[in-house]
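Lecture 7 notes. Example A: sequence first, then its structure tokens.
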Amino acid sequence: MKKYCLAIVLALLLLGISCQKKDATIIVSSPNQTNTIGFGLTAEGQPSYWVLHGEDKVIDTSLMGFEFKNQDPLAKNFKIVSQSERAFEETWEMPWGEQREVENKYNELVIGLEETEDPKRRLNIYFRAYDDGIGFRYGFPSQQGVDSITIMDEHTEFQLTGDHMTWWIPGDWDIYEHLYNTSKVSEIDALAKRDHPDLAQTTIPENAVNTPVTMRMDNGTHLSFHEADLTNYSGMTLKVDTEKLKLTSELVGSARQDHKLKVALPAKSPWRTLQIADKAGDLITSRLIENLNEPSVIDDISWFSPMKYVGIWWEMHLGVSTWDLEATQDMNTFATLDREQTSTKHGATTENTKKYIDFAAANGFGGVLVEGWNTGWDHWIGFEDREGVFDFVTPYADYDIAEVNRYAKEKGVEMIMHHETSAAPRTYDQQLHAAYELMQKHGMHSVKTGYVGKIIPSGEYHHGQWMVNHYRKVLETAASYQVAINAHEPIKGTGLRRTYPNAISREGLRGQEFNAWASDGGNPPEHLPIVAFTRMLAGPIDFTPGAFEMTLPSKPNNQINTTLAQQLALYVVIYSPIQMACDLPENYQGQSALQFIRDVGVDWEQSLVLNGEVGDFVTIAREERETGNWFVGGITDENAREITVDFSFLDPNRAYEARLYADTSESHYRDNPMDIHIESVEIDANTQKTFKLAAGGGFAISLILKGAAE
């Protein structure tokens, strides 16, 4: 990975301060003094911290500690035995991403603690203060006679300073595919979300929320809580005390084990992160999560290219075809069908795949995804005995993998592999090398993985330590075969795409497919204006936009709750280095709006949030790498509104041929979703233009460099 402008340790001070008073406070502030962290010990010797944003306290005094198996809690009777401080500054380059250059600039404070009584265990706490937020993590040093620690739970508190407006999903140990809720902290009731008919797996044991969870204080300051560098640890949910307005870390556990996690010493926890912004849009442009991860361990990632793709996927959700050859299951309800209902409308045939390859080649799309190509789909979801069901190297008889890849190469298109594990990761582990060798043989460099269902072995959860380590093993193994991973039913993104840039995208939210089969009729219009300020802060999203048929004739009880213009805008608003045009090729025929999907970039020089409020609307502009072209997307919730775009971000010395895709006065996500106005105009840095967004609507703009302005 190329690195430059590196100015590492500007200051390093090591001070032995074991005699310091327990009520003394040690502080570290961010480079511009925007955010300040204070650390101290309580009268009982328990670690505590607080956080200021400017002069406003955003986190009040909050305690820290751990419970261990067969040991006393690690929480009290500490003294400070060391303190080190340093300033750090670098600029690193994303090989692909929302921007090319990332500034990583912080001030760090490391506190060394030791118990005052035997066995005098030690604990290090690392604090980093950034101008866009803060992060801290725990370090467990090697200790005589102890080679590992077994953690029953972590008790990191975040004491809020008010009853903030919050956008949250429940702290589900198995899935993130819930609709977001909007409420005050005091009104959060995650347990009420336990029964969900549309989820193949769900486990909500506490009144807790998953991260990222975003809040807005009364003074307009925005906070988002998350974690970074989740490595060999359990995922963190945040338990909510609705009376004390306090969040406390609640680690995902295991019903197979009597503890949350076990790690060998020395060890470090993931970073506990808090992004802080004066306006909502600054949360989106923050790179705090990525900066808290280590530099890339992959020297050459040139084998992966950001791309747009199409594929055999949406037609199964629409009921046009099936994943499995014999159709022994209804894949929309996950129910086993009677044998009399079986069908041979298999989607992943050689002939059908070639149709998608032809469409991709004709429209400049880089890839084709094929789901349902391999044996095992006739016996997966809904069955308890799913171990060994899927074969990741054996295609169905009507899918010629060699011929498909030959044909794709001839057309200049790359095939994208699909591996559905049916949440039986041990089966996948056993076949990883053979599966990636097959991909390598055919020149396939990316795979969409899936983990639908309850984890086998029973008692493990998608977000516990056991599965965190499985996801990492897949990522590391894939890198050795030059394979990039797009994970569905994943562990949350925590910025590891910096260290492993073959972690290109993931699902981890309620995606487009819910519009086709969810019992509640699909995602409401407010869903994506919330996602942009919550889930997207964790990293790229494979949302699969690009639906051009909103009423879904084959699904009379469902529809897509956006206008056509908003579907276009999502290619800019919802970031991923791989973007699907999800609809059937025939639904794009004769549609002039398809030109925007052909034109829009997927890899960006820089990204700007022009305006936005969580759950209401957002407008984002992104400059494409290498070309200098810009693309703008804006979306709204169920409320129609006007948004004015000031194009002063453009190069003042250039003119742009702009193509505008906008709602009309008759557009409406429910009543008239397909109505769209398209026009071409010239735009420069002096232009301002107001767009009228329909309910559930949006607008998209391509700005192609025209040449030097006269």
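Example B, a different protein, same format:
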Amino acid sequence: MTEHPVKQWQTRPPDQPPIASDRVATKTWIGLVGAMLGAFMAVLDIQIVSSSLQEIEGALGATLEEGSWISTAYLVAEIVVIPLTGWLSQVFSVRRYLIGNAILFIFFSVCCAFAWNLPSMIVFRAGQGLTGGVLIPLAFTIVLTTLPPAKQPIGLALFSITATFAPSIGPTIGGWLTDNFGWQYNFYLNIIPGILLVGMVWYAIEPQPLQLNRLKGGDWGGIVAMAIGLGSLEVVLEEGNRKDWFSSPFIVRLAIIAAIFITIFLWLELTRRRPFINLRLLTQRNFGIGSVAGLALGLGLYGSVYILPLYLAQIQDYTAMQIGEVIMWSGLPQLVLIPFVPRLMKYFDVRWMAAVGFSLFAVSCFMNSHMTHDTGMHELRWSQLVRAIGQPLMILPLTSIATANIAKEQAGSASGLFNMMRNLGGSMGIAALSTLLTRREQFHSNRIGEAVSLYNPQTRQQIDQLSQILISRGAEASVAYNQAIAQIANLVRREAFIQAYNDCFYLIGFALLLTGLVLLLTKKVKAGNAGAAH
């Protein structure tokens, strides 16, 4: 980026209207779009693999529980590196750090496609997470540091595409590639955008000198405590439900480690003169509330994309491609709607826009909370469209609220914290939803089972009717009777799961609705003042 327009923008008196200094050079936009490509790939890789996880597990000879580490390895590495990105980008410069990690991300993506067993896949996925996790906050940081306030809503709109559109379209792309070419192409997909990213950033972002002297005075104690604490917490969240939470000694030990080291991390960062990430930003009203809202945003974005495919696969027996076609309705419309959001922000209070966005997302979840065994693609389309309208109104105003009056030198810390909270919200949300799904299925099974009893005349009548049908098809009387009971038991379990899925959508909906109301407590933000302040 050239220094001339930014310098003019910084020295323009605040009482004068925007002048030519608010114009952004084409070269700057090229660098920004290149960075957004990286963030889009990194977010996409979280969801795109989930739609082909069964095929990957089969190819590598892994069980369902073992295969869960394919996703966990990526998420653990990503959550650890995101808070570090602001500091390391100062050490190595944004240009070098972004290009280096983009090249490594492509390398690990190709390695994943050639993985020969589960351990190699886990190692390569961790490498993807370590490098892909850098791409997300750096894109956000570049918006805050290279664009003047008047143009930042446009940059944040581009970032919102990576945050909301990528999770929505991931299952569709993953399902189509897996069905037509094989699961390996989910990883090959990163090659061409990755090369474009490297070329655009190399051309457009100005080189800066290395500051390796920062490594000597680095906050290594805080970094180690953060890595151990957040990494352990992420494993607990990802693996807890599969291992029945605290009945597992492994989960108990990790939870204790997470609690100890996260406490040490918080103490070190709040007491040291030069922490690697400035946690005091969370005490600022807008950033603190906005970051907490990011937890709910992660719950909504990742939780809904977790629960709905499970329902479609289990209850409707949809293929990966069919699931993708349903999720697509919450993704594609956003490409049309997002460009209009920066314009709306000029005329409406961004706090109310964010509240409306969260409320619309909540309404779409409440629409999904009344599903039956007949609810399929056509019935779900309308809730997905409501979600597609709400999501752009969530992320862009929310980021504007959170980053208002953040100083330019704090952009790295703000980016790391905001994106970490969103990812943590996704992990915590999925952990809560998976546990809720298990517990509520058991509850509804017991409740329905009390009504569907062998002592109930209607149940016995239904068993007799099913038995007669099976006998007419050639089954023996005793076999037909047992099969009839099994069919009714399966129906009870199916209905219990459907009600449990509905409960999960209720939880997401209420969390989003409450968050929308809380955002009204933030300070008013003008559209042209969101972002780094000077």
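Note on Example B: The two ends are 18 Å apart (CA to CA). Residues 219 and 274 are 7 Å apart (CA to CA).
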